[in-house]
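To: structure desk
From: M.T.
Subject: fold request, one chain
Message: Could you run this one when you get a chance? Sequence is below, nothing fancy, just the single chain.
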Amino acid sequence: MDLRRWESGNFDFGRSVIILQSIGSFSLIYALSNYQLPPIGKLVAKASLARASEGMDFNMETLNLKANTVSCIKHEFQKYAEEQLDSKQLPVLVDKLLVPGLMIHDKEDLQTPNQNVLELWRHWKGAALHNTQDLGHNLRSREVAPLVVEFVKEKPLQLANH
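Reply: Done. Structure tokens follow.
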């Protein structure tokens, strides 16, 4: 990204490709669905959460957080977002999403359930889905990088049938 063009307001977000994982994917999809942000060219969402509560549940288990700590985190989130945590569900919101997307998710991801990603994909009409096997949540493999490169190069976008 040319930071000088971005700072001057001359950056063309419509040609950009943003690649995010997990809570990052969730956050950007949520923002694009709810706020008037500059349009982006394409979005690669790897191991995306479909619901904000998934992230809380995972962090509680993985980080061994106490219920009181999680309660405080939820309270702060809800205070900032001015909505209940459980209302942050991407499958409900992505109908508005106009950006072409590639979702990559592992069928055995223990942190973000595959069923929720399938639900998200069914509602996001501009997205293709690629499921992997035995890569877990981090999706590190020689299989994933070529998928992303091909998606970025692809013109026009070939979307999977929903």
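Reply (cont.): Residues 156-162 have pLDDT under 50 and may be disordered. Let me know if you need anything else for the meeting.
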